[in-house]
Design brief:
Blueprint lengths: L4 E3 L6 H11 L5 H9 L4 E2 L3 E5 L5 E5 L1 E2 L27 E6 L5 E5 L10 E12 L5 E9 L2 H7 L3
Length: 156
């Protein structure tokens, strides 16, 4: 995996990263920490990923990493309503990036809320399903079994 970065917010102090982890109550993957501490809010040239969507079709999205800087509009804490059911969110998802069309790329802690190796999923911002209890939630689409696998999928 070679990062081709065209813009970022620079180095992120480790204490900021730790504060966000504690606030969200999840451990981020090691590779994610290593990259984001050096390149907060990064934008990549190789920012496209391909996947099979929930409808069985080959699809693609772009990815723009969220910042840890609260002054940024698209920051990691501002986007965490994706895990709140009252906003059609799905518990145990942590948005770490956003796509140009408004979809979210999330770390999926549903299988292991205390682990540091979550799957990566895409959450459709404009596609909802009705749950058994009558509530609705945004559709979640599996993308990769780990953050490392996700990063290896990125291309121009």
């Amino acid at each position: 995996m070679q990062l081709k970065i065209y813009r970022d917010n620079g180095i992120l102090p480790k204490e900021v990263f730790g504060t966000v982890e504690k606030k969200l109550n999840y451990l981020f993957p090691r590779l994610y920490k290593k990259i984001v501490i050096k390149h907060d809010g990064m934008r990549l040239y190789n920012n496209i990923f391909d996947f099979t969507n929930v409808y069985g079709e080959v699809d693609e999205r772009d990815v723009n990493f969220l910042s840890f800087d609260n002054s940024e509009v698209e920051n990691i804490l501002a986007e965490q309503y994706v895990s709140d059911p009252k906003y059609a969110g799905v518990p145990h998802l942590v948005a770490f990036a956003i796509c140009a069309n408004g979809d979210y790329v999330c770390l999926d802690y549903r299988d292991d809320p205390t682990g540091d190796n979550p799957k990566v999923v895409l959450m459709y911002h404009d596609d909802h399903i009705e749950n058994e209890d009558g509530t609705t939630s945004m559709v979640v689409n599996h993308v990769a079994d780990s953050f490392e696998e996700f990063m290896d999928m990125l291309h121009e």
